[in-house]
Fold this protein.
Amino acid sequence: MELLSQNCPLCGSPQVKPHDRYETQNGTRTIYHCFECDTYFSETFATPIAGLRTPLSRIIEILKARSEGMGLNAVVRTFNVSKKTVIDWEERLGGLKPVLMLYALLDQFLQLVIEGDELYTKVNKNVPPELSEGWTIVLMDRASRFLWELHCGQKEQQLFEQAIKVLVQVIEQTQDLSLFTDGERRYGNLLFEICHELVRDGKPGRPPKRLPKGIRVRLKNKGAKKRVGRPRKKYQAPVPEHPQTNSEVPEHEIHANQIEGLNASMRRRNSAFRRRANTYAKSRQHLQRTLDVFWVVHNFVRVHLTTKVVPAVKLGIMETGLSWSGLFSIRYAL
């Protein structure tokens, strides 16, 4: 799968040749002809800039400002552009997330360490946290800082199920995966419920359920000392694991510290997470739109401060990161 290929978007054939050229405000563009299905299409067909007249340089300039923390109203005042236009551009850019996720899941990984945690911000009104839709589940690869999941909603079972379904897809691409969380037991419980397997050991009775071979789940109980009743261990394996899985995990590695660092970064670069009432997202959909843009830019464009490379490059799914103009050349999944 090539992100920037000019294969036919309808039949996927590489039998494509330039047919004609035409002028736009963004320069000269090419119309291609597919000899396989006899279709003509523009080079911007099914891309984020299809049908846009605004110069690409201006779109990139405004979205860069948004991705560095400028609020929506501030962008409208500074760049003299309508709010609906900026929202439309962000929806177009965030719409690349399914394609880029599919591209990431085409690779095989030898070993992954995933951290899981939840971030919180207010949405629309100041309501109690348990009723807020501003909870964001984060699943991040520790070594590369690649974000596998970044989804918001009310802190309920459905939100965790969606995150674990993404994790199951990652598990299918690796033989060794460790999931570390800070106290939240639903990650391990749902993972066990969705992808457990039966271990037949020859003993009478039902075979026991275990996690797949090579999968480990550990959690760190932060408030173990304050809990009423029987105290829990600080570090736990909440679900039974496969007998052939190496279960030895050093306690100092069981944490989600990298996500805590991501939390600080998001509060600088996503205005909806800043602790100012006039920048909170007005709905869950608007918050998710900003998260999708953050996911795309963080994983494939921005060089990480610690690793000094783009997370997708560090993970090994790309040789070089994408440019902003390259992002707008990627086609949506049809």
